[in-house]
Structures are given as C-alpha cells and as structure tokens.
C-alpha cells in the first residue's frame, strides 16, 4: 500500500507473489521499529462553516463547531482549504432558502474542480432548512452529503463519517428535551466583545404564519446552572455584552430543580391570550435575568425575542431592567401587524389595543427606556388596505428605534398554509413594504434626533467599516454610534490617555442622527459602573 501510495508500479500474477515473498524476507524483526513515513502524521480535516438567518443560527454554528472540534476537526476561514463545508440555514422566508440553493450551485462548481489528489469535498446542510426540506435537499442533483436538523448536531461526527464512505447521511429528528446544555459553544469570532447565549429552543406559540415550531420543535429551556456557567466563561474571556437568545425568552422555565416544579403558572393580562394551557412549575425568566446580571457588573445584558403576551404580569422583569445598570434599557416587542383583525388571523394572542397598552406600561415602568424595536409582516393573508394603514399608524404612534420589516412569505406546514389564502399580490406586498420602511425610517430618525446633544455610553466593537479613522459601537439602546478614533482621557484616571480599543466603554456626545446611526465626538473612556453612578 505504501508503494502504491508513492506511485510505484507493482508486478502482477506469479511475479507479484515472488515480489511479496522477497519483500517479506527483508522485513525487520518484530522488536525493531520502522521510522515513521514522511507525511504520514494524521491531518485534521478542515471544516468551513457559513451561517444564514437569525442569531439563533449564530448560536447553533458555535454549538456545531464545539462538537466537531472535540471530534478532531480543524476550522478554516478559507473555502478553498475546506474538506467539509457546512451551511447553517434559515427557513423563515422563501428568500432565505433561495439564498442557500444559489450557494449550493457555487459549491457544486467548487466540488467539480477539486483536485483528484484530495479527498472529495463534503457538503452539509444544517438547521431549519434541513429539517423542512430533507428529501428535496438529498435528491436535488445529489450534491449534498450530510443533512442535520437543529436537534441533531451531536450526530454530526457520525454523519460525516458515513459521508466519507460515499453515502449520503441525514438526521432531522426533533427532540422534546435537547438543549445542548452540556456543550459550551466555541465562539466563532475569537476575541469578540459581544456574544449570544441560547437559553431555550423551539416554540409553542403556533402563530399561523410561522414555520419555527415545525423546524425547531417544542419549547424547552436550558437549566439555569448551565447558562450561568457559559456566561461566566464569556466574562473570563473578556466579552462585554451577552444577548440571551430564544424564540420566546420570557416564557423560559427551568424544570431541572425539583423544588420549583410546582410553582404556579403566571397569568396573562387583559387583552392577551394563548393557544396552549398555562405551564406550571420551573424557575422563570426573571430569576435567570437576575442571576445573569449579577455575574459581571461590567457586562451588558440583552435578551431577544420576548413575546408580548408574556410581559404584562412579568413586572419583575421590567423592574430588573429599571434597577440593574448592566441590563440594557432596550426592548424588542414584535408586533407583526397594527390591525387587530390581522393579528387574530396570525394567532398572535393580542389586540392592537392590548399591544399599545403594553408599550405604555413599559415606558411608564422604565422612564429611561432608550429604545424599542419590533418585527412587522406586511401582505399577510387577507390583509386589506385599511389593515395596512393601521400598521402604518402603529409605526407612527410607537416610534420604534429599530425595526425588522418583511413581506409575507407562505411556508408549508404552517396553519396559514392549510387554512388561509396567500391572496395579496406580490406587487401590492412590495408597495406596502416600501411604505412601512419609509414610515419606520421617518419615525426612527425623529426618535434618534432626540438624542442629539446627549452623552451616550458606547461599547466599542471595532473600526468603522467605512473609515479606518473612525470607531463603531452601540449604545445602551442597541443603536449604532460612529465617532472619531482619537486619544482619550480615562474618566477614572486609572489608565494613561490612549485610543479606545474593542471592549472599551466610551462616553460619546451625539452630534447628529439618522434613522439607523448616531454620530458624535468621544469625551472619555469609562466603565459601565462609573457611567451608571454619574447619572
């Protein structure tokens, strides 16, 4: 085998038998050791990971990489170096899936021109699209070698081993209890100042438009102890901002501790409802948020996404946000529509009036709340022009700082797919989306303009993408702030004057604002605790 591997031509038939007997006679005694063949040391296969979609997929990428790293894989950022290419995918909208199909065509060409001297390139589809379209992915042009759903990442080493034998391998089984609680994710951006921590998986809300319950399964929460361990690890690594992630974070409940399993379920306020029975027992999100915020007073804490129906009686969450200087005064309140009729068709569990009452409650409870963000879908089944105008008016009334707006995309398996008609024409969806975006930008520009002249505490993330002479970061409200990279004094006078680095907190006086960005002049370097004490 070694000779063949070196390109040596061997004789055949009787001559081969004579050759082998002669070679055996020349072998060393059993006690003798052959020197290792040059280049025979095992080389770790290189994996290239590419992430599409939401922050949950960023977290999933880190989990998948942690599993593969323990199995002997090496990471590469160069596509041409990879032995394995894994795409962590999204299925929320058709456009997201189309991006994956387009990417696969590029990878098909890469696979075809791979030198024969190298092992065949293996391609894998992970995440929500794998769960939704397993059969189509495997059979479409036979390009994909591995398919793994969101609950099957532990199986990746086995699936890749099967693929090495030339077979396709798949696991898209959904789990009722998988949270990857025992796996500490490996941060995909080493040295980063921010990180995402997944606290739960799946969703039980069953909104009529949403594919998530069918691609990520039923809702289940990680034990609080494992979450705290991960946050402490990130703090030790110098991470300065953590975002707690889940499809519905404020319905979090840790059932791992027996003494809390009989705790009564929280109630819903007037105007809010749910499609599932109240869930009793477990430590709730307010307890988790309290514990996480105590780990590192210099680490900012954010969370997303909460569901409006789970806020009203969670007064303790709003109270924590008000009291703790390191819990950001920013909330994501996904509305989806401003029309009660459309909200009912979406099975969101609240009316327009109940949603607005919640917004007023939040702003009354946290007078210093800096930023509100939301999600909106336009062109949902049966949406009329009047419904659309109600969404426009909601954007004006609430005046969000950050918005995520999309045209409706029908997804198979959802309730809308089975019960409703996707009857709003594409050109109408496009026009309405453009109107919503224009309205949002107009109101966000006004909301951000109110910050001009104020000093904002900014966590530096790095150089601005548009200018090497400027730095970029985000304020407490998660709004991007750009400012000149100049030498700064230290507010506590603990450090010599110097330029701000990623992970530093800088006080910036805002001089101008747009719908998406603030600009300002830096005043000094400081700390999260010192900035809070001075206000």
UniProtKB/TrEMBL annotation:
It catalyses: N(6)-dimethylallyladenosine(37) in tRNA + (sulfur carrier)-SH + AH2 + 2 S-adenosyl-L-methionine = 2-methylsulfanyl-N(6)-dimethylallyladenosine(37) in tRNA + (sulfur carrier)-H + 5'-deoxyadenosine + L-methionine + A + S-adenosyl-L-homocysteine + 2 H(+). Residues 449-524 form the TRAM domain. It comes from the Eukaryota. Residues 189-446 form the Radical SAM core domain. It is an enzyme of class 2 (transferase). Its EC number is 2.8.4.3. Transmembrane segments: none annotated. Residues 45-165 form the MTTase N-terminal domain. One of its GO terms (molecular function) is metal ion binding. SMART domains: Elp3. PROSITE patterns: MTTASE_N (PS51449), MTTASE_RADICAL (PS01278), RADICAL_SAM (PS51918), TRAM (PS50926). GO terms for cellular component: cytosol; mitochondrion. Its cofactor is [4Fe-4S] cluster. The keyword Metal-binding applies. GO terms for biological process: regulation of protein metabolic process. Keywords: 4Fe-4S, Iron, Iron-sulfur, Metal-binding, S-adenosyl-L-methionine. HAMAP family: tRNA_metthiotr_MiaB (MF_01864). Belongs to the methylthiotransferase family. MiaB subfamily. This is Mitochondrial tRNA methylthiotransferase CDK5RAP1. It comes from Sylvia atricapilla. The lineage of its organism: Eukaryota, Metazoa, Chordata, Craniata, Vertebrata.
